Every structure is written in structure tokens, then in C-alpha cells.
């Protein structure tokens, strides 16, 4: 019995080491543990977050969106019905100017949307502008039922507005200041006119509120 008691005491001392070495043994035990460290567990998640944030473009500032042309360039053109359109003809209320090309697929896709917008919002001036001939403008209007005043052979005005690709939409204040400038609508919205119309309306409203 005495021998058994001595063995139990020795065993107890093996599991309860001297306080001076207890923390050192605990550190060794932690290092030998197979459980990964918390920082390593979160590395994949941190990597995914970093990549997603880097890929997401920062919202453009007003200055970056508008660019170097901040007021409507000098305008003196004729539309397909031989009506003259000048800056003074557009003064007094906001104007939406839509730059397009008859060879532009996105322009054809958006014709229905901008028609819907004009039918719903009569508080603006509207002008669609192209560099092509009157015949090309008439053909585009007939094929895509574009219901905006359309100016043709407006290359000088297009160049002055620094438009190099199509479509481009420009929102002009009643005093000629440019409030916003945008390109094609989102591709997934073009298939649903109501969604694309909402996108167009939100774009205009946000720039009027600036």
C-alpha cells in the first residue's frame, strides 16, 4: 500500500510540474498543437476582401466625370426638319444632349429608353446629335423610332464637346453649365426597358441634385 501511494504521488508531480517550469512547458505544448493560429485562418478571407476592394472602382467625382469641358460648347446646327438649334434656343431650362452614331449598336439599343424618358419628362430640352449626313440621321430615326430632335453634320460641335465615342449623354443646366456626362447604360438593363429607364432617371436626378 505504501508503494502504491508513492507511485501516485510521483505521477501527480509529473502532471503538476514545478511552477518555475510550468509556463515553459505550456508554451511548448501550444507550439506542438495541430490547431492553426487564428491569423492564418483569416488569411484567405483577408485576401478575398483585398482583391474585391481593389477591383471595385471608386465613384467618380463631379470634376472627373465632366472632364475639361464644363459648359456647353458653341452650338449652331440644324435638325432633320430644318429647324435651327443654337445655345440661346436651349437657355432657360435643363437640356439633355445625346451624342450618337448610326453605326453604334448601343445607340440603337438605347433609342427606346431615351424615347420613354422624353415621354415621361417634358421639363427638359432634348437634342440628339450626330456627325453623319441628314440621310443617315433620317434612316436611324426611322429604323429605331427615335423621338428626339436630331441634329446632323454636327462634327464641329461634337469635337468641341470632346466626344470621341458613342453614345454619350450630357446633362446641361439652364445656364449652360454641364451637370453630368455619361456613356452607355448598363448592358444587363438594356434588355428590360423599365429597368434601363429607371437607371436613366436615377442618373439625371443625381446630377440635378449636385
Compact description:
This protein has helices at residues 2-15, 19-32, 38-41, 43-55, 62-66, 87-90, 105-120, 134-144, 155-160, 187-190, 193-208, and strands spanning 76-78, 84-86, 95-99, 125-129, 150-151, 168-172, 178-182.
Notes on the structure:
The structure is a single chain. With 210 residues, the chain is an alpha/beta fold. It has 2 domains: 2-55, no CATH class; 62-208, Glutaredoxin (3-Layer(aba) Sandwich). It has helices spanning 2-15, 19-32, 38-41, 43-55, 62-66, 87-90, 105-120, 134-144, 155-160, 187-190, 193-208, and strands at residues 76-78, 84-86, 95-99, 125-129, 150-151, 168-172, 178-182. It has a 5-stranded mixed sheet with strand order 5-4-3-6-7. The protein has a two-stranded antiparallel sheet with strand order 1-2. A hairpin with a 5-residue loop joins strand 6 (168-172) and strand 7 (178-182). Helix 7 crosses helix 11 (193-208). The longest helix has 16 residues, at 105-120. The radius of gyration is 34 Å and the shape is globular.
Amino acid at each position: 500500500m505504501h508503494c502504491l501511494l508513492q507511485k501516485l504521488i510521483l505521477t501527480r508531480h509529473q502532471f503538476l510540474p514545478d511552477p518555475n517550469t510550468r509556463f515553459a512547458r505550456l508554451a511548448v505544448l501550444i507550439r506542438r498543437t495541430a490547431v492553426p493560429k487564428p491569423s492564418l485562418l483569416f488569411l484567405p478571407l483577408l485576401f478575398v476582401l483585398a482583391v474585391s476592394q481593389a477591383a471595385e472602382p471608386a465613384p467618380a467625382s463631379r470634376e472627373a466625370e465632366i472632364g475639361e469641358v464644363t459648359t456647353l460648347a458653341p452650338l449652331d446646327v440644324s435638325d432633320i426638319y430644318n429647324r435651327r438649334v443654337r445655345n440661346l434656343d436651349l437657355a432657360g431650362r435643363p437640356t439633355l444632349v445625346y451624342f450618337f452614331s448610326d453605326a453604334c449598336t448601343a445607340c440603337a439599343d438605347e433609342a427606346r429608353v431615351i424615347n420613354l424618358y422624353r415621354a415621361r419628362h417634358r421639363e427638359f430640352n432634348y437634342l440628339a446629335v450626330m456627325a453623319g449626313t441628314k440621310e443617315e440621321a433620317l434612316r436611324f430615326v426611322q429604323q429605331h423610332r427615335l423621338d428626339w430632335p436630331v441634329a446632323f453634320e454636327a462634327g464641329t460641335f461634337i469635337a468641341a464637346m470632346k466626344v470621341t465615342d458613342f453614345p454619350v449623354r450630357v446633362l446641361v443646366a439652364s445656364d449652360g453649365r454641364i451637370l453630368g456626362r455619361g456613356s452607355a447604360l448598363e448592358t444587363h438593363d438594356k434588355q428590360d426597358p423599365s429597368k434601363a429607364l429607371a437607371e436613366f432617371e436615377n442618373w439625371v436626378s443625381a446630377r440635378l441634385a449636385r
